[in-house]
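Exercise 7. Predict the structure of FACT complex subunit SSRP1 from Zosterops hypoxanthus.
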Amino acid sequence: DGRLRLSRQGVIFKNSKTGKVDNIQASELAEGVWRRVALGHGLKLLTKNGHVYKYDGFRESEFDKLSDFFKAHYCLELAEKDLCVKGWNWGTVRFGGQLLSFDIGEQPVFEIPLSNVSQCTTGKNEVTLEFHQNDDAEVSLMEVRFYVPPTQEDGVDPVEAFAQNVLSKADVIQATGDAICIFRELQCLTPRGRYDIRIYPTFLHLHGKTFDYKIPYTTVLRLFLLPHKDQRQMFFVISLDPPIKQGQTRYHFLILLFSKDEDISLTLNMNEEEVEKRFEGRLTKNMSGSLYEMVSRVMKALVNRKITVPGNFQGHSGAQCITCSYKASSGLLYPLERGFIYVHKPPVHIRFDEISFVNFARGTTTTRSFDFEIETKQGTQYTFSSIEREEYGKLFDFVNAKKLNIKNRGLKEGMKQSYDEYADSDEDQHDAYLERMKEEGKIREENANDSSDGSGEETDESFNPGEEDDDVAEEFDSNASASSSSGDGDSDRDDKKPAKKAKIVKDRKPRKKQPESKKGKDPNAPKRPMSAYMLWLNASREKIKSDHPGISITDLSKKAGELWKAMSKEKKEEWDRKAEDARRDYEKAMKEYSKADSHRGEKSKKKKKKQEKLVKGKGDKKGSTSKSASSKSPAKGMSDSFKSKEFVSSDESSSAESKKEDSEDEGAASPAPSSEDSASGSD
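Solution. The predicted structure, encoded as tokens:
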């Protein structure tokens, strides 16, 4: 999927998935064909240098508009050609530019873009074409076989001639000749392992112990050079479309990891004139420097694409990236000038022009971190979690400066994305060389040291991830008795308990008491008045039911709403008056009810006080009886375990009052042992 724009200058198509842009100049157009295809109608454009572009998804009604536009601005007749649908499997093969066309008579049956051919093999009277797989399609065409009948012409083998025509335009990688240069034993993160990288004029050859990959430069979308957070390593990322395959695994990114300290001296396998002619000063025959710098320079010159580096963003620690987690793995998120890239497992590149909105969310497990969510226009959601709270201010400022929509703030005026829908993404300045990176690093460090941290703290406060900490402290605070309505009654018990238990009690008490605090509605209280609509609905319900027999409750409500909307103002005013009368009656009834309620309240208070006094009196009586009972019990067992008066009086835990009562009770209950007491006392 993508967007197609026709202008006087030419035709521009931008791929929605990859962001790749096809730009066809008006002067290059040679032919335009309109035809019916599987998805509606299609447009086929042929250029003077043999390239073919096909776009479908048009409506039949758009032909006249397109035809007029082509005549007026491109001086081309948009020819209508229908495909042959006879179903015959014999015909004529024509090679035109990048296309193989199988025709029956003058009508084409099918066309094969030769750039999709991955291999071409020949047999006796037979040619087999194999194709690159399309990951986006549910079903992929793997191969097509053509039977080529033998001809009587001498010296020309029709099978070989057919194969040569295919191979001249096909995207077949043949490692013929010597490599321009070789980088030995480079550490590769995806696909994992150590690989020798052989650089050929048209493709890159990754040679490992178990796997070999040949990557044509035409499949390279973007190049990234990213400094690691530790400032000692560098990531070199190559974005690929279509991806390289290893079994069922697809690698959309090739990630190399370099140490900044590794140096290399490189000699290209070309003479100086060839180097100058081919690379126009971008490369020289003999080069030396950091390994990552050499690889990036060679790749940039051969692929002919800019290298994307991190922009002006600088995190809390001074690094140009943010440590976070995506899915199960921890990695680094780099905010770029025109997108975000996450390395390394799995690598993710998100362009700003495909972002619908971003969202800052609280961390699910702790308040020390937050989550950064990105949702694309296609509905894909990426969540980068466990980002340190200190990074919030810098990231928020960056997102704000790039005018991305922030979900939790809502849409604001002036926050419209100012990206050209058809501009090629990542048109940054190449900023990849070691000296320049070091200089910029020094400047940033100086700026970071000079500037105060105040601004960062202010922006952090707008998110306030620490608010939750404060709430918890209040909830479990031992002095937070004011917050708990039921805490007063049990205060004596709580004070004696250890601190930990007190915390638990404070936390749970309000939950137990909540249902009690919610008083049930008084059945004697006046009922609230109905609205004008409800009064009308109650009066009209039966009529609606009779007009629409068997109508459900939900449909009845919908119908009533429609009727009420359609009702004239005069009729509505009549029901408004009734509602106003009902409201006045309700207010009058409420005044009377509140007076009666306050009178009842006073009575109930008096009653409660009386009950409390009665309970107190009973409690005192119970206390005295229990004391007398306890004093009698030792008298009964006196013969077994005798206690003298001195022993009782010297007991520190007993009060004076209890001693008095004990002695009186003992004297009354057993006068005989009193003489023994005195005797034992004198002894």
